[in-house]
Specification:
By secondary structure, the protein is of the alpha+beta class. It has one domain: B-lactam Antibiotic, Isopenicillin N Synthase, Chain (Jelly Rolls), CATH 2.60.120.330. Helices cover about 25% and strands about 15% of the residues. The strands form 2 sheets. It has an 8-stranded mixed sheet with strand order 1-2-10-7-12-5-4-3. α2 crosses α6 and α3 crosses α6. The chain is globular, with a radius of gyration of 20 Å. The protein starts with 14 loop residues before the first helix and ends in an 11-residue tail after the last helix. The N terminus and C terminus are likely disordered. The protein binds 2-oxoglutaric acid. 2-oxoglutaric acid binds next to β5, β7, β11 and β12. One of its GO terms (cellular component) is nucleus.
């Protein structure tokens, strides 16, 4: 596949449309080879022990240290935790999810005006991961839009449903505030100042990936999303029901339990690089179910498109030599425009030493 290929094909059949035709079997195009199916023998059901962190202690003079220790352990061992008492009102979250659901139920032509396979578009409606590159399709429709600063992007977002901009916009702003607070504790966990790269974080990129996974008649044969890591620093994910699975360092999959009003925090590639491998960018995938449609809103935060990110000098020493080259969000986008996610991970192109304790998908 050539890197600078013309991206022209905007036509596709969404999974929402497919399922309206009441099919009892999934089309051939969505059937994964047996080795990539969500094989339950590789799934560990210890999900109840996955970390849940209460953020109400964030500003407590003595308990903040314990909170930072918990955050460090979670980022170091799994690259994942859930947060409760995070400060985003339940109604703001519910309204955003409702407006997402309404968007996906719009007639096809209302959504197709945002259709594009060009990963550089600030607003993009699509299906699977990238319908132009994927060999096998994933059971997912999505709309992605840039969100920071909101005033720069919101006029490009869908105008239907009529309250989409208002509801999704309030959630995007609230989740960005939470992200800045979380960045402080995640950085402090590494021994860095909570204000480290403060301006870059403030002016960083926020991409909202709003996902719809219709119920699937044959969930054992397909996936909603393949195993992948997120490029940015932190992803904050809100899910309407269970369906996300994360991979641990023994390559075991763990279903992430649904906790009402909790948010899922995932470490992305940029943090793995900044921490020189102390934090793990978490491989994750989405499984499907026969009963119910699932929605999720992933707020993917990263440094600005052109900002080169390498390991923080403070975490590098003789015992921990530089293990990653510098990379940027812009370079990541160039990489994924040419390659399907399943063909290899961008972060692997940045690794200098093969680290035996890092998970590979
Ligand atoms: O829907 C989910 O649970 C995961 C979404 C995700 O990984 C993404 O949008 O990158």
């Amino acid at each position: 596949m050539e890197a600078n290929r013309e991206i022209s094909d905007t036509s596709f059949t969404s999974v929402v449309e497919l399922t309206q035709k009441c099919q009892h079997n999934i089309p051939e195009q969505y059937i994964l080879p047996p080795s990539q199916r969500p094989n339950t023998s590789h799934v560990d059901n210890i999900s109840t022990s996955l970390p849940v962190i209460d953020l109400s202690m964030m500003n407590h003079p003595t308990h903040r240290c314990q909170l930072i220790d918990k955050v460090y352990a979670a980022c170091n061992q799994l690259g994942f935790f859930q947060v409760i008492n995070h400060g985003i009102p339940t109604l703001v979250m519910k309204d955003a999810l409702d407006s997402a659901e309404e968007f996906f139920t719009l007639p096809s032509d209302e959504k197709m005006c945002f259709a594009s396979a060009d990963v550089h578009k600030p607003v993009r409606y699509g299906t699977s991961m990238n319908h132009e590159l994927d060999q096998v399709f994933y059971w997912r429709d999505f709309i992605k839009h840039y969100a920071n600063p909101l005033s720069q992007w919101i006029h490009l977002w869908p105008s239907k449903p009529t309250n989409y901009k208002e509801k999704m916009g309030s959630y995007a702003e609230a989740v960005n505030v939470l992200q800045k607070k979380l960045m402080e504790v995640v950085l402090e966990g590494l021994g860095l100042n909570g204000n480290y790269l403060h301006d870059d974080i403030k002016e960083g990129s926020q991409v909202m990936a709003v996902n719809c996974y219709p119920s699937c008649p044959e969930p054992d044969l397909a996936l909603g999303m393949p195993p992948h890591t997120d490029y940015g620093t932190l992803t904050i994910l809100y899910q309407s029901q269970q369906g996300l699975e994360i991979m641990d360092h023994n390559k075991k999959w763990h279903p992430v339990p649904f906790i009402k009003d909790a948010l899922i925090v995932q470490v992305g590639d940029q943090f793995e690089v900044m921490s020189n491998g102390r934090y793990k960018s978490i491989p994750h995938r989405v499984i499907l179910n026969v009963q119910k449609k699932r929605f999720s809103i992933a707020s993917i935060h990263s440094m600005h498109l052109d900002k080169k990110v390498g390991p923080a000098p403070e975490v590098v020493d003789e015992q921990h030599p530089v293990s990653y080259k510098e990379g940027s969000f812009g370079e990541f986008l160039a990489y994924i425009s040419a390659k399907s996610l399943t063909e290899g991970k961008y972060i692997d192109t940045l690794k200098i030493h093969e680290r035996s304790n890092l998970s590979e998908v």
